[in-house]
Each structure stands twice: as C-alpha cells, then as structure tokens.
C-alpha cells in the first residue's frame, strides 16, 4: 500500500530538522539509510507477526520492500545501544531529582540546600547513595560539575544550579535525547491515531505565528518556570508509585510512562512548512 499524502507530508516535515542534525554531525545519507533499513526489519519481525505463525523472511520482504538477502544480512547485525551514556544520564538525573524532592536535602523554604561533599549528616555522598546506588559520589559530582548543574563554593559546599540534567551542546547525552524524547512523542501520536476518544493519551500544544520578537525572552522564561514546576509536581507523584524510587509501593511494576515539555521558536515561513 502506498503512503498517503498526509503521511508523506508529515514525514517530510519530521525529517527536515533531523537531516539538518545528521549533516551537522557528519552522518551521510548511506549511514542513515542503513539504520532505517535495520529498524524496518526489527519492527517487521517484532510487531507485525501473524498470530500463531512464525515471521518469515518472505513476509518481512513484502512488509518492508527489502530483498530477502538484505533482510538476512540486517538481521545478523548487533543492535547499537549506548549503555554507558544511558546509565550516566539516568544516574545524574535521579540525583538532581532527589536533591529537589527529598526533605533531608532541602532548607526551611523547601529549596535544595547547599551540601557538604561528604562527612557527617546528610551530605552529597548520602544523596548519591540514596538515589544512584553504589556509584561513587565523586563520579556523579564530576559529571554534574562538568555540565554546570552544580557549583562548589569557597567552603567546598555544593549548590544546585540547574533543576534538571541537560548535557552540553553536541555531547552524546544530548543526542541521546533525540532517541528518547522524540520517540515518546511519535509513540503517543501513533497510539492516538488508533485509540478511541476515552483512551487517547494527553497531547496538546499552544503556539502563535506572529508574535512580537521582543516578547520571546519573557516567553522562554515563563515556559522554563511553569514547565519546571509542572514536571516537579509530576515527578513527586510518579516517584511515590515507582518501585525503584519507592520499594514500599504496592502492586506490580514494569510500566514506563512520563510527561515531556518542550519549547520551540522559529521564523514564520508564511505557512510553507
């Protein structure tokens, strides 16, 4: 079946910023095409089976448009998973979340208080042990200092500068966000296309196409402030029900869910996306 015009137009709009990113990072078309082929094969094999029947190479060829020889080659390739980057991002983010949420590390106003690195009391070392397991606290400290999320004062106390973990431009962790955040949005859109009205996931946005240019700094600040407050509220709610963050929570686990907020800004092109 041929792709519909709306899907083709949507794909064109989706790929334009992605291809800009790929070219900027030195990935040529051939490398991208190989990755796309591999994903086509994986999805055809894992998600498009006929109930009760083994997925065959011939059926996968029909679904993907690839030859059986090419499919056999692609099925033998190992999956590329950046485990180290994923784990580092997860640990650092959890430490910051704990610093914001856990009363042991807050001041009288409910704000993250300065922490001694180690020693007696509720120190940064205790924070890391509580929210990042057995990872050395010095390794987490080096990472948070590197990305500018934490600063150290003249008394060697640590101050939380950023209420979220955001790697610097161009680093592997930043590129990892492309594979997690965008994937989540597309998965939500796919779900909503098939779901009934009472089963749709929340998916909204607000934008205007003729804003005053000098209002954008205020809009960025408003988005950051209000968005952070909502994310912290949702974080507290989900942490109470997450079996890793709260082992005393009752019921089965194994479900992944979340909420993403992003801000975008660009010149109006007169409607020609």
Protein described:
The structure is a single chain. The chain is built from nine helices and three strands. By secondary structure, the chain is mainly α. Among the domains are: 1-80; 83-160, Arc Repressor Mutant, subunit A. The protein has a three-stranded antiparallel β-sheet with strand order 1-3-2. Strand 2 (150-152) and strand 3 (157-160) form a beta hairpin. The two termini are 26 Å apart. 11% of the residues are buried.
Topology summary:
Elements: H1 5-24, H2 29-47, H3 57-64, H4 68-75, H5 83-101, E1 115-116, H6 124-132, H7 137-146, E2 150-152, E3 157-160, H8 172-194, H9 216-239
Antiparallel strand pairs: 1-3, 2-3
Helix pairs in contact: 5-6, 6-7
- Poorly predicted spans: none
Query: What is the distance, rounded to the nearest whole angstrom, between the alpha carbons of the first and last residues?
Result: 26 Å
> Approximately how much beta-strand content do the residues carry?
under 5%
- How would you classify the quaternary structure? single chain
Evaluate the radius of gyration. Answer: 23 Å
Global outline: globular
Overall pLDDT level: 84
Structural class: mainly alpha
Q: Please provide the count of β strands.
A: 3
User: Order of strands in the sheet with the most strands?
Assistant: 1-3-2
Helix content: 40-55%
What is the overall number of helices? 9
Instruction: Give the topology string: H per helix, E per strand.
Output: HHHHHEHHEEHH
Q: How would you sum up the major sheet?
A: 3 strands, antiparallel
């Amino acid at each position: 079946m041929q792709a519909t015009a709306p899907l083709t137009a949507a794909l064109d709009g989706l790929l334009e910023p992605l291809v800009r990113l790929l070219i900027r990072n030195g990935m040529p078309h051939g490398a991208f095409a190989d990755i796309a082929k591999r994903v086509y094969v994986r999805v055809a094999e894992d998600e498009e089976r006929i109930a009760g029947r083994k997925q065959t190479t011939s059926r996968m060829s029909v679904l993907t448009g690839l030859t059986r020889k090419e499919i056999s080659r692609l099925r033998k390739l190992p999956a590329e998973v950046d485990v180290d980057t994923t784990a580092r991002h997860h640990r650092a983010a959890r430490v910051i979340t704990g610093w914001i949420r856990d009363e042991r590390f807050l001041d009288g106003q409910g704000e993250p208080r300065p922490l001694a690195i180690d020693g007696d009391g509720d120190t940064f070392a205790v924070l890391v042990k509580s929210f990042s397991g057995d990872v050395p606290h010095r390794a987490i400290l080096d990472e948070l200092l590197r990305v500018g999320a934490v600063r150290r004062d003249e008394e060697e106390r640590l101050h939380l500068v950023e209420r979220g973990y955001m790697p610097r431009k161009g680093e592997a962790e930043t590129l990892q966000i492309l594979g997690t955040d965008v994937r989540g949005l597309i998965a939500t859109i796919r779900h909503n296309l098939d779901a009934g009205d009472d089963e749709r996931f929340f998916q909204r946005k607000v934008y205007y196409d003729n804003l005053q240019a000098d209002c954008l700094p205020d809009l960025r600040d408003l988005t950051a402030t209000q968005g952070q407050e909502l994310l912290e509220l949702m974080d507290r709610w989900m942490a109470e029900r997450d079996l890793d963050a709260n082992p005393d929570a009752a019921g089965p686990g194994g479900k992944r869910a979340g909420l993403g907020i992003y801000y975008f800004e660009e010149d109006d092109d007169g409607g020609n996306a």
